[in-house]
Design a protein that fits this description.
GO terms for molecular function: ATP binding. This protein has 258 residues and is of the alpha/beta class. It folds into two domains: 63 residues, no CATH class; 171 residues, Rossmann fold (3-Layer(aba) Sandwich), CATH 3.40.50. 56% of the residues lie in helices and 11% in strands. Helix 10 links the parallel strand 3 and strand 4. The radius of gyration is 24 Å and the shape is elongated.
């Protein structure tokens, strides 16, 4: 026969939305009894595990909402293949202080050096610290902003992209932008200025952004806001994919001088 107190407790836990505690109630009670916990220690255990469960659930939801195209984590990044990377700066970014200060992050370097990996991993780390994030390719971003503008809904689209604590804009500069696209991107940068972190990956040095964005004046206005509070991470190594192809013999190995 089920103890009526246990049934009542389960109902109360359901009403209070303490889902993890309700699901693990028998296990928690057994742990408390086996370890002869005091009432205070047992209550501390229950609340601690419930909070951890809720935090993990929120993090999973935020990761889904971030729309990462790949599962990339900091522990999977091979720093030995990119010796030019400033590891102290990356470690600082892992703390999440840049998010708290609405500081931007520019990840610059040639294709294939791991910029997108770093961006996703850092944004994921921010999510684990309780922040929200969103990932989008630059081409998709300007397309969505242009479509919203055409339908008189640009302000709403800008509000959507201004909402996350971290907005990752990937591959800015891989495709040339029309002048209008550069202007729309400026509106987004202005909307997020000193309110949220923009994390941008690009294969173009900032000196080329005027040509890339189709308007030198707009590029200057964008960079003025982006660089005011920013960390610039520059990677100068060779493409991971090219290294793998060399290793597999698909492309010739580099000639060694001398």
């Amino acid at each position: 026969m089920v103890d009526p107190r246990l049934e009542r407790l389960e109902r109360h836990l359901t009403r209070l939305k303490l889902v993890s505690t309700r699901e693990r109630l028998d296990t928690l009670l057994d742990r408390g009894a086996q370890n002869e916990m005091s009432f205070l220690d047992f209550l501390d255990l229950v609340i601690k595990e419930e909070i951890e469960s809720k935090d993990q659930k929120r993090a999973r939801m935020r990761i889904q909402m971030a729309k990462f195209p790949l599962d990339r984590r900091m522990e999977d990044y091979d720093f030995s293949l990119q010796p030019s990377l400033d590891r102290r700066l990356v470690a600082e970014l892992e703390t999440g202080r840049y998010v708290a200060n609405a500081t931007n992050v520019l990840l610059l370097g040639p294709p294939g050096v791991g910029k997108t990996h770093l961006a996703i991993a850092l944004a994921r780390k921010a999510i684990e610290q309780g922040y929200s994030a969103r990932f989008i390719h630059a081409a998709d971003l300007v397309y969505q902003l242009a479509a919203a503008s055409d339908h008189g809904a640009l302000d709403e689209a800008l509000r959507v992209f201004a909402r996350p604590h971290v907005l990752v804009v990937d591959e800015l500069g891989y495709l040339p932008m029309e002048r209008r696209s550069g202007h729309l991107f400026f509106h987004l940068v202005r909307k997020r200025y000193e309110k949220g972190s923009l994390m941008i990956t690009s294969n173009q040095p900032v000196g080329s952004w005027g040509e890339m964005l189709g308007d030198e004046v707009v590029a200057t206005a964008i960079l003025d806001r982006l660089l005011h509070h920013s960390h610039i991470v520059t990677i100068k190594g060779e493409s991971y994919r090219l290294k793998e192809m060399r290793r597999a013999g698909v492309v010739p190995a580099k000639e060694v001088a001398g």
